[in-house]
Design goal:
Number of strands: 5
Order of helices and strands: EEHEHEHEH
Radius of gyration: 12 Å
Strand content: 25-35%
Distance between the termini: 27 Å
Structural class: alpha/beta
Number of helices: 4
Helix content: 40-55%
Largest sheet: 5 strands, mixed
């Protein structure tokens, strides 16, 4: 996991590997601290994620809910074809905005 500060309170969080139980547990504390502790705009770059399980989806929902409650926002960017298919099938894109590229998420991720 990488965390890159952006303009203002925004951050870009890059995830890599499998977002299954082991992957989610390995980043849980750092991800939660970065994404859910204060109001900010968070772009989660999924470019490097090659698999996502229900625990990974739950982690994303939890982060999005925490940001929403604080007045911030989480958006998802650049999933692989397989990860996108899982996110859409699970309805994640109906709750958390999903963009094709990081550039799109950065440019348009503030819109409601």
């Amino acid at each position: 996991m990488t965390i890159q500060p952006l303009e203002g309170e925004s951050i870009l969080v890059g995830l890599e590997g499998r977002f299954d139980i082991e992957g989610a547990q390995s980043i849980e504390d750092q991800f939660t601290f970065a994404v859910a502790t204060k109001a900010r705009r968070v772009v989660v770059d999924l470019t490097g994620v090659d698999f996502i399980a229900s625990i990974g989806i739950r982690t994303l929902f939890t982060a999005a809910r925490a940001q929403s409650q604080r007045g911030g926002r989480v958006v998802l960017a650049a999933p692989t074809e397989m990860v996108r298919k899982v996110l859409v099938t699970a309805g994640v894109d109906q709750v958390i905005p999903l963009f094709d590229t990081v550039a799109d998420a950065l440019a348009r991720g503030n819109a409601n």
